[in-house]
Prior knowledge:
This protein is mainly beta.
Amino acid sequence: MPSPRAHRLIAFGVAPNTLYYVVVEADAEFVVSVEENGGADDSDNDGICDAQDDCPNEAPGAGDVFATAVDITVSTGAIGDATCYSNAYTATSTPGDASASDDHDVFYTYTTGVCATTLDVELCGGDVVHLLSASGAHLASGDATLPAFCGSLTTGSSLSAFGVAPNTLYYVVVEADGEFVVSVEENGGADDSDNDGICDAQDSCPTQAPGAGDLFATAVDITTSGDAVGDATCYSNAYTGSSTPGDVNASDDHDVFYTYTTGVCATTLDVELCGGDVVHLLDASGAHLASGDATLPGFCGAITTGSSLIAFGVAPNTLYYVVVEADAEFVVSVEENGGADDSDNDGICDAQDDCPNEAPGAGDVFATAVDITVSTGAIGDATCYSTPTQLPVRPAMLVPRMITMCSTPTPPVFVPPHWMWNSAVAMWCTCSMPAAHTWPAAMRPCPASAVPSPRAHR
């Protein structure tokens, strides 16, 4: 049992957040109790002792310190109550400044838009408002006249037209003892209503963003259509003398980008423009190839201004960019030269095609061979088929009439013939004859090195 002579020790003076040792001296059983003075409690665990805490049972919310600032970029304002917040912004704190008051502080962040030049910060119900940089450096403070929007709040300060930079993070610190309303707004003249990256004050179309083709990266493909009807009024001037892509021939007009991929037979490209000033041809990387602002084409109709550019030299199967520079409506036409047609899409240009309007059928190449296992034969017409390229080189054997079959006056016992190339006489022959046979002077036996021909046997 504990000794009836228990000792009691009350109210040692101690320091906060400090380790102490308690030594008990006893001869037998004992009970020891160590307890901090009740007035030293921090009931809401906010680091402020209840005796010094205006809100001992309620911890501050987000925004109590610089590191937990609340972002109001989207909402552009906040309704708050600083009663239970700490005084984290002082003349000696970091961040802090000499104009700080003894009021409680709430931290907010705001990121300016692409067109921002000034920022209006208004406060109702508080005493002072501060504007800080992203690092916490003090930029300005205000405790001016009461704004009109404060309603039932009868105290406040107003700070207007802070000079700010676009696309920049700022901190707004509200110092208040109770309820408050804070409003953060960019100057109205800095709006970008259509979100096209051009401020309304400098935008020809402040409420309408450019469409596809405004930039090199969003070029519109017109390979299939071959033309386009457009209106450059609301497009930007992305193709200039100093832009990439760009060239010294660029004008100050608005620009629309198109792409066109040439066909297998293309050698020249006609580009005609109505309603614009200049048209440019670029390669796939954006490098400038040519520009034109010549005479008005005949197809322009009611459009009375334009330029025509004809017969660009181009490569087949190649991507090109066409840039139209115009201020308003325009029509652009892109067409390959007619002599570069491949009417039957067989990969042979009409000018070199024996059958320009009829493509070869199945069996034209090794990969499309026709199976005759069941039929054991076929009736065909090779007129529109291509010239075989798999035979040995034979300058004198490009047409069927040069093929000659070896013959003999005495019918031998034939074995299935095999066409062979006789390099000694530069002709084809069949090696189905007896080796002892005497060949006519114009015919020679096939040498051992002869290469079998894939031609059919006859």
